[in-house]
Design a protein that fits this description.
This protein is mostly helical. Among the domains are: about 60 residues, lambda repressor-like DNA-binding domains (434 Repressor (Amino-terminal Domain), Orthogonal Bundle); about 140 residues, no CATH class; about 80 residues, no CATH class. Helices cover about 70% and strands about 0% of the residues. It has a two-stranded antiparallel sheet with strand order 1-2. The termini are close together.
């Protein structure tokens, strides 16, 4: 089990680089004793610290998290088998192979894209994966050549269909990005983000182009490129504000801006600017209060629940796990519950991510039982997302290592997560 821990990989790469604990700790501005605890598995680093350590060691974050996971139960043959075909599709995006049959009518392709997007939001990566290559191929041919079934229409109608095909392509490439990122194929994920940009730019939809930039900024944050991501997100917010009709923001504009502000909040706390992160959260909250509730515009979830989830995440990333758990209990008390729970209609990926974060916080505060329960909650909500998440692995590995009573349920969860016996 220890070989699967992120701390072990940090130590291995530190030794390869011939760096001391003190040298690496100085680069990421933490104490040598904390780094020693991380390497031994006594403390689990937050995602932002993993990115910093990876940068200090000259590797990608995936080298420290051990992704992609291919061992044991994690193989998930359906999900893994589609990766080579997706690589081929992303390589030939503007020069696709011929189809054996004509593409289906555009409305049919739109309906299937909607289905794929729904599966993406619910983290159903395994059944979603096999649908993507064929759908991408058909949409690409429609976007580049026009749908043969509408060839008799006026040129303006054909151009409108092509723009719609590009719009649907952007959504499909976003699904590829999610699948590749969750499975740990980060190079493929980055390529998919560029393809989202390519398709969105040809769709004629300004908000779609902005959300493509939002995805790119998210990749930058994961890689620790905070300055670049900050400039991109701040520029995108300005663009969205300018494209609003007569400077009057619609709900869609506010939803997209709100999501960008939440991304900025995570960015700021990982860059060590905690107060600035709180300011971003306050800005996002002001937009959420103007919306009818939790919304989903351009496949981007935003609203009061997402603001709360990010508020907890910011506290956890800042190291204040005690206050993060206090906030969850405080919100729960408003509804006579022990802890706040995301609403059942929230995107499953977002809700499961919350419980994964809280599980890590509870472990840091010594509540091993509560941590295990929250991992199980995350699994019930979005099993594929939970199974592929690196924080789940580090949390579960530590729980098993600390377990003196040989809890069968905990060991079973670890095996389910592909961590061996």
């Amino acid at each position: 089990m220890a070989s699967q821990h992120v701390g072990t990989r940090i130590r291995e790469h530190r030794k390869i680089r011939q760096m001391t604990v003190r040298q690496v700790a100085a680069k990421v501005q933490i104490s040598p004793s904390l780094l020693q605890k991380i390497e031994s598995g006594d403390r689990n680093p937050a995602p932002g610290l993993v990115a910093q350590l990876a940068k200090a060691l000259g590797v990608g974050p995936d080298r420290l998290t051990g992704q992609p996971y291919l061992n044991g139960a994690e193989t998930e043959e359906q999900a893994q088998a589609v990766i080579p075909e997706l690589r081929r599709m992303l390589l030939t995006y503007d020069n696709p192979d011929d189809l054996l049959t004509a593409p289906r009518p555009l409305p049919v392709l739109v309906a299937e894209t909607n289905h794929v997007s729904s599966m993406r939001r619910d983290s159903k990566y395994v059944p979603m994966g096999p649908l993507l290559p064929g759908l991408l191929a058909e949409l690409t041919h429609v976007a580049l050549a026009g749908d043969p079934s509408v060839a008799r229409r006026a040129d303006s109608g054909l151009e409108q269909d092509r723009r719609e095909a590009f719009r649907q392509l952007a959504l499909c490439y976003r699904a590829v990005n999610s699948l590749a990122h969750k499975l740990g194929y980060h190079d493929l994920s980055l390529t998919a983000v560029e393809r989202v940009h390519w398709a969105a730019d040809r769709s004629g939809d300004g908000l779609l182009q902005a959300t493509a930039g939002y995805l790119k900024a998210g990749a930058m944050v994961r890689m620790g490129s905070y300055q670049s991501a900050r400039r991109l997100l701040e520029g995108l917010i300005g663009e969205v504000e300018r494209m609003a009709p007569e400077e009057s923001l619609t709900d869609a504009h506010m939803g997209v801006i709100g999501a960008m502000l939440l991304k900025l909040a995570i960015l700021e706390v990982r860059d060590g600017r905690v107060e600035r992160a709180r300011e971003r959260l306050a800005e996002a909250r002001s937009y959420a209060e103007r919306l009818p509730g939790d919304t989903l515009y351009y496949e981007t979830s935003f609203g009061p629940s997402n603001v709360r989830i990010h508020e907890v995440a910011v506290l956890i990333d800042s190291g204040d796990t005690e206050q993060a758990l206090a906030r969850v209990r405080e919100w729960g008390a408003e509804h006579d519950q022990a802890e706040w729970a995301p609403p059942s209609d929230l995107a499953r990926e977002r809700a499961s991510h919350h419980y994964i974060d809280v599980a890590a916080a509870k472990l840091a505060e010594g509540d091993r039982h509560g941590s295990h329960l929250d991992l199980m909650r995350a699994r019930r909500i979005a099993p594929h997302h939970t199974r592929f998440h690196p924080t789940v692995r580090t949390t579960a590995a530590t729980l098993v290592r600390l377990d003196r009573g040989q809890n069968d349920a905990l060991a079973g969860f670890a095996r389910w997560a592909g961590m061996g016996g």
